[in-house]
UniProtKB/TrEMBL annotation:
Keywords: 4Fe-4S, Electron transport, Iron, Iron-sulfur, Metal-binding, Repeat, Transport. PANTHER family: LACTATE UTILIZATION PROTEIN B (PTHR47153). Signal peptide: none annotated. Residues 470-492 are annotated as: Disordered. The keyword Repeat applies. Gene3D superfamilies: Alpha-helical ferredoxin, NagB/RpiA/CoA transferase-like. Residues 67-292 form the LUD domain. SUPFAM superfamilies: 4Fe-4S ferredoxins, NagB/RpiA/CoA transferase-like. This is Lactate utilization protein B. InterPro entries: 4Fe4S_Fe-S-bd, 4Fe4S_Fe_S_CS, FTHF_cligase-like_sf, Helical_ferredxn, LUD_dom, LutB/LldF, LutB_C, NagB/RpiA_transferase-like. The keyword Cell membrane does not apply. It comes from Plantactinospora sonchi. Residues 395-472 form the Lactate utilization protein B C-terminal domain.
Amino acid sequence: MVAPLPFPTAARRELADTQLRANLRRATHTIRDKRLRVVGEVPDWAELRAAGAAIKDDVLVRLPELLEQFEAAATAAGATVHWARDAEEANTLVTELVRGTGSTEVVKVKSMATQEIGLNEALAEAGIAAVETDLAELIVQLADDTPSHILVPAIHYNRQQIREIFARRMPGVDLATLTDEPAALAEAARRHLRAKFLGARVAISGANFAIAETGTLVVVESEGNGRMCLTLPETLISVVGVEKLLPTFRDLEVFLQLLPRSSTGERMNPYTSTWTGVTPGDGPQAVHIVLVDNGRTATLADPVGRQALRCIRCSACLNVCPVYERVGGHAYGSVYPGPIGAILSPQMTGPDAGANRSLPYASTLCGACFDACPVRIDIPEVLVHLRQRGVDARRGRPSAERTAMRTMSWVMRDRRRYAAALRAARRGSAPLRLVTRGRGVRRLPWPLSAWTASRDAPLPAAETFRDWWAGRDRRGTRAAGPNGTAEPGGQP
């Protein structure tokens, strides 16, 4: 879950892929526009957002109590509840449960939690094949790739690229009928997966929500593959983050309005599956629930950062983010990309998060993510908070930036020093103004090269406001302003 490269390095590489940028722009704008239309139909959308935030905050305040309530209710209904402190414990638990069935292949419902802990890789090491059944996840798996979006993992591919992946990697595909038309691609996936569903003895899922009151798990999806996994196999193993709880079944009403509109731009999910323990003669007869912490308790301890645990994985913040739209999910190097990943991943992986420490800087702080978030996570606030935490952790160490800021502070504390600095900057920039025709500098030497690596450096103004103001009376009652417009001058 820790990014292999710092975000600036990875983003620079992704920016060079023009096909990726075209795919991302087309897909994110399509989803964004659909969302705006269906959200506009709801007169009390603001109240729904506030209700969703309040319910999730209540969960975070009462998390230990609600977890115990959920365990008791699920156990009474016939499920077996397991607890995992981290990814290693969760992977070991699931692997042993699958081994106990004698199966060497499992079918999977799309699950961010299992991606977070690296479950597919852990199962593969144990000789167990995990088959992704969500269409986008299947595309990514066949391509030996990783997801780049929470909702649409294959958003970085277009349909011609998907056709090539199916032709190369999908067993038994009929190349004579395989075109890049969506219907043909969906039919090829359907035929491939049908055999997997009918032969599977074990399924693995996550959960969008877990109801403490009844011990019920909930999965919402668009394709029906989840329903197949949740009903056909003999054994069902659900890996669930501890923050997915809702106190009561009635609370689900709020989120079944918020989630589909925010994620797919639909009024309701095509498939909403709920299951509570074991029902004799109907569905899986062995149900296991693995409750995973994996950094969530540490995140909960931060009064500002804990709001990230409200997240319902709708991906609305990704679809409106100008940074994500240009670099895609792989630049973040984490299971959770985009604005929510920029605050969730570094918190869950802790202070020694390696390259994840660069993620809070993967933002313009424009605030579009907060406006789109259905549970009102103030992502810009948390980004600034995490940046400050990173600075505080390095406080006392030598830093070129800190030295520069202290120098600027000393200069600006005295108006004479400040005026002299402005005059020196203006004189020093005169040759550059001639060379660049006043358009700014594309490249500066170290340490200022960090600025011009991704933006131009503006030149100082040809005339400062102070100089212009001081010369108003000398220029008469109608003096030209700093921007060239006529301004009244002198006394009336």
